[in-house]
Amino acid sequence: MQIHISRGEDQSGPFTLEEVREQLAQGKLQPDDLACQEGGSEWIPLSELMNKLESSESTAPTSSTKRKFLIGIGVVLAVLALLAIAGLILDLLKEARRNERVLWEFKKGSYGIGAPSTIGADGTVYDVGGGKLYALDGKTGDIVWQFNRETAQRTAPAIDSKGILFIAGLSGNFFALESKNGKIKWEIKLNGHASSPAIGPNGTVFIGLDGNRVIALDGSDGSIKWEFRRGQKAIEFEGDIYGYRPSSPALGTDGSVYVGFGDKKQSGCYACRWKRWIGCCRINGQ
Q1: Residue where a domain terminates, one of 83, 100, 117
Q2: Residue 235: which region, alpha, beta or left (left: phi > 0; alpha: psi -120 to 50)?
């Protein structure tokens, strides 16, 4: 920065800012001398010009600090944005790897959640969803056929060695279906909420009912072979068993049937009732 000085008719300079300060201190220049910055056209008292220059010098560091602060914020935001993008890319890559394992997908209704699928000898997948039973091609996931009579929630079908499917319906209905086309072979009205069935080696179909009964049906025609009852029917709420599903029977190699039972007398509140279920009962299945 160069400064020109005028005193009367005499002009001097140009001087640097430091030189002007020194000469003011030595008395060679006076505050009321006129001064003009090089390249400017306005002559003002030297004291006024010095005040302006010193004021601009004092604000310059502040502006520089603000600029550095804003640049720092910009850098931090840019880094965070890059990290977010990198995280998104990693998530997409992980999802892509997971999808590589998915051969096909079948979307069903909410009913049937918790019921496992059943696989036929030919690879057909039988699955309950939205109150319906679907037969799906195991290789493609395409629907082979669907059974539109409402099926019970959270119950899975069972299939015997002859290719007959057994599935519990709503309102106590129980069905035997041809696994190839879903046509009804026979149906029976059961007085109670049925579980997923189990099939014995001789074709007998075992079903848990209402948390306190087991019934054995002839798989060929649905006739009742025998019924076993223990305790009282579990508590019902709005047409369904409250907080409890009928226990599905399990079969032993010696012909025994194992099934869990509930007892209305031992049903306290929802939180503690689970601890009070009678654990398991063994029945002679013959």
Answers
A1: 100
A2: beta
Range of the domain at 36: 2-100
Asked if residue 106 is part of any domain, the answer here is no
- Written as six digits, the tokens of 76 are 């931090």
CB distance 120 to 133 below 8 Å: no
- Write out pLDDT tens, residues 52-68: 777 766 555 555 667 77
**What would the pLDDT profile of 79-101 be if each residue is shown by its tens digit?**
999 999 999 998 888 887 777 77
Q: Which positions ≥6 away from 103 have C-beta within 8 Å?
A: 139, 141
Count of structural domains, the chain: 2
Distance, in Å, from the CA atom of 85 to the CA atom of 9, rounded to the nearest integer, reads 70
Distance CA 191, CA 83 (A): 61
Buried b (16+ CB within 10 A) or exposed e, 225-242: eeebeebebbeeeeeebe
Tell me which of 37 and 274 has the higher pLDDT: 37
Q: Which of 100, 120, 143 is the last residue of a domain?
A: 100
Distance CA 201, CA 29 (A): 120
Does residue 167 form part of some domain?
no
Q: Are strands 198-199 and 118-119 parallel, antiparallel or unpaired?
A: unpaired
> What is the distance between the alpha carbons of residues 271 and 286, in angstroms, rounded to a whole number?
37
Q: Cβ distance 181 to 195 under 8 Å?
A: no
22-30 average pLDDT score: 81
What pTM value is reported for the model?
0.59
Does residue 144 belong to any structural domain of this protein? no
User: For residue 155, how far is the Cα from the chain centroid?
Assistant: 24
Would 234 be classed as within a structural domain?
yes
Do the Cβ atoms of 17 and 55 come closer than 8 Å? no
